[in-house]
Amino acid sequence: MAIMELLIRNSRITQDLLGNTATEFPKYTTQIMNLANQNAQGTRPRIVGQMSELVEECPKGTYEQWVKWYSEKMPKAIDEAIEKVYEMVRKLALAVTFIDKSLVRRWVEDLVLTKTFTGFCFQESILKAIAERKWVKYRRSTPEEESRFIDGYIGETPVSIKSITYKTKSMLHENIDVRLIYYEKLKDGIRVEYDF
Questions:
Q1: Residues pairing with 158 in the sheet
Q2: Would the pLDDT of 22 be above 70?
Q3: Domain assignment present for 6
Q4: Is 163 in the same domain as 113?
Q5: Which of 80, 111, 113, 154 has the greatest number of beta carbons closer than 10 A?
Q6: Amino acid 100: pLDDT
Q7: Could you give the CA distance from residue 159 to residue 138 in angstroms, rounded to a whole number?
Q8: String of b and e for 111-131 (b: at least 16 CB within 10 Å)?
Q9: Selection from 138, 149, 139 nearest residue 178 by Cα
Q10: Cβ-contact 81, 34 below 8 angstroms
Q11: What is d(CA 12, CA 21) in angstroms, rounded to the nearest whole number?
Q12: 24 to each of 1, 11, 85, 122, 182, how far by Cα in Å?
């Protein structure tokens, strides 16, 4: 028998669970609110609770029962999250007023030229320094390996080198299944984290 595939859309899942269609938002607004939330940390467990534990703790039932139970268990959580996210949205809206074509040019040049060049230099130094500590050779990755998120090899170990800020970028959708090395730029050099 042939392998069958089935795609169930989120809108279908929402309708099955809630009995209605997914909430619609104006174009780009969810991206802005997601960014604001990442910066404001409005939906972190300290604000809204540890959701995986709360869902398990909640008596099984309907969506309406979940909402009622959660609202009683965490009566201020939603409002606190709203305030944090909304305040950050206001800050982002103000920041947008400073963005003109000249600023976009500076940002693109910094990203494409400066950060790319320094990033590759950092990678080379990191690969070399860790390889020396491990008494092995290192090499940069090939373009084909780079397409699989491999920045180089330390001995036989494939590695991906990321800025420490990568740890907090939850909206990234990369699936990296090699050893991760993190670096942080300091005033007088770079700090490196690795665990192999």
A1: 153
A2: no
A3: no
A4: yes
A5: 154
A6: 96
A7: 10
A8: eeeeeeeeeeebbeebbeebb
A9: 149
A10: no
A11: 8
A12: 40, 10, 19, 43, 38
54-95 pLDDT, tens digit each: 988 888 778 888 899 999 999 999 999 999 999 999 999 999
Does residue 186 sit in the same domain as residue 111? yes
Last residue of a domain, one of 96, 125, 153: 96
Contacts of 166 (CB under 8 A, 6+ apart): 172, 182
How much of the chain exceeds pLDDT 90, in percent? 49
Question: Any idea which residue has 């965490």 for tokens?
Answer: 74
Q: In 3-state terms, what secondary structure has residue 24?
A: coil
- Of the ranges 14-18, 47-51, 106-110, 173-177, which one carries the lowest mean pLDDT score? 173-177
**pTM (2 d.p.):** 0.63
Domain that holds residue 35: 26-96
6-24 b/e with 16+ CB inside 10 Å = b?
A: eeeeeeeeeeeeeeeeeee
Q: How big is the CA angle at 183 (ends 178 and 186), to the nearest 5 degrees?
A: 180
Which of the pair, 118 or 151, is modelled with greater confidence? 151
**85 and 110 both lie in a single domain:** no
Domain boundary among 38, 73, 96: 96
Q: How many domains does the chain have?
A: 2
Alpha helix positions (H), 135-194: 143-146
